[in-house]
Amino acid sequence: MTPQQPGQIPLRFGANYVPSSGWFYSWLDFSADAARRDFADLAGIGLDHVRVFPIWPWIQPNRTLIRQRGIDDLLALIDVAAEFDLEVSVDLLQGHLSSFDFLPSWVLTWHQRSLFTDAAVRDGIAEYVDRLTRAVATRGNVFAVTLGNEVNNLWPSNPTTLEASSEWAAELVEVARTAAPRLLSLHSLYDGTWYDPGHPFSPADNVDLGDLTTVHSWVFNGVSAIDGPHGPATVSHADYLVELAAATATDPARPVWLQEVGAPRPDIGEHEAPAFVREMLDAVTRNPALWGVTWWCSHDLDRSLADFPDREYDLGLFTVDHEMKPATRELAAVVRERRGSRPAPVSRPALVCDVDLRAQPERRGEVAPGSPFHSEWVRLRQAGPLAIVGAARAADSDYLTARGIGTVLTKA
């Protein structure tokens, strides 16, 4: 599926769906009625889509066994979303969720083998991606599939290289695209791919593979230590990631989906969250590359469940008892203001980045939070929207026009 250019469509607003009862363990005894209550919360604040997470090893517990019951439960959830006019994006390989890894036993213990490099494992994954993608494509309210939630979180226990991880993702994106050409097929990575010089997943893969780019913005990656919770580096971090992605793509019209963003404690205090939501969204929703915003997450995590990092328990828009939070009211207000429209495009300046993230991934630390480049971008960004442009394209007038860039600035 070819996405429309961001400027041609209204901004999208949604939530990453975390069930209010039982977290993702609720897949083990799926309840459509429980999902109905959760989706009523989300539709009630004006959201238009959800991103959902079936658990991979519970659907494919053996390399040659894919459980139809697990697929049927996923389809039932998608149908419940349709009752509330919610469109659905399905993540395939979970993979990694809230500090826990969910991997099937056929890649662990005596079968220990990397899911990125072992040929038999890759064949098994390809079959799973094909089967699940074909199934969800039968539902008209499904618009996208993503290979998995931040699959690069799995690499420490699944050795890989820049070349192998790129080949793995390219192969699976193509499997999904072939299985369901009408759906967006996407690749999702956390921001180590942008900031960590030794990370074995390339920035180029973010912007080359799949039908649009996804970014995940979390201020606990070091940004909040600079000036959180309301400082310019903290509230502009989502916009900074969108700009890095836009500058790294070869296509100046490639959309960027802010697929995860949240207000994590203690970096963003409960009473500080509404203002953070407003300031962060005011910054990022003015970016012409932005496709949409999907909040992490829909519902809190019940504190009766053990061993999660403390910040994971309170990230929801709603409590486990379906109570709306002050930050949620602020998000709902932004959705009402921006629904059906997007800010009018204006010419904006761009700061030249001397680091070629496509060709020089070993230099990623030079654009990480707190680096001289990032600090200069944050300083200049306080005057208004500010693009990023690679040095190689800083004099390309057609490219600059396509991205709405006027003046080109060099770092002082």
Task: Please provide a written account of the structure.
This protein is 34% helix and 15% strand. The chain has 412 residues and is an alpha/beta fold. It folds into 2 domains: 7-338, TIM Barrel (Alpha-Beta Barrel), CATH 3.20.20.80; 348-409, no CATH class. Helix 1 (32-44) runs parallel beside helix 3 (68-83) and helix 4 runs parallel beside helix 5. The longest helix has 18 residues, at 119-136. It starts with 11 loop residues before the first strand and ends with a strand. This is Glycosyl hydrolase. It comes from Planotetraspora silvatica. InterPro entries: GH (IPR017853).
Layout of strands and helices, then pairs:
Elements: E1 12-16, H1 32-44, E2 49-52, H2 56-59, H3 68-83, E3 87-93, E4 96-97, E5 100-101, H4 119-136, E6 142-148, H5 162-179, E7 184-186, H6 192-195, H7 203-208, E8 213-217, H8 223-227, H9 232-235, H10 237-248, E9 256-261, H11 273-284, E10 290-295, H12 326-338, E11 348-353, H13 372-381, E12 387-390, H14 397-402, E13 405-409
Parallel strand pairs: 1-2, 1-10, 2-3, 3-6, 6-7, 8-9, 9-10, 11-12, 11-13
Antiparallel strand pairs: 4-5
Helix pairs in contact: 1-3, 4-5, 11-12
Give a short overview.
With about 400 residues, this protein is α/β, with parallel strands linked by helices. The chain has 14 helices and 13 strands. InterPro entries: GH.
Features:
412 residues, alpha/beta, TIM Barrel, 2 domains, three-stranded parallel beta sheet, 14 helices, globular
Name given to the CATH architecture of the largest domain: Alpha-Beta Barrel
Record the strand order, biggest sheet. 7-6-3-2-1-10-9-8
Number of domains as seen in the coordinates: 2
Identify low-pLDDT runs: none
CATH top level assignment of the largest domain: Alpha Beta
Structural class: alpha/beta
User: Helical proportion?
Assistant: 25-40%
Summarize the main sheet: 8 strands, parallel
CATH superfamily of the largest domain: Glycosidases
Mass-distribution shape: globular
Termini gap: 42 Å
> In sequence order, what are the helices and strands, one letter per element?
EHEHHEEEHEHEHHEHHHEHEHEHEHE
Count of separate DSSP helical elements = 14
Structural Rg: 20 Å
Instruction: Tell me the strand percentage band.
Output: 15-25%
> Which whole number gives the mean pLDDT?
95
Strand count: 13
What's the CATH topology label of the largest domain?
TIM Barrel
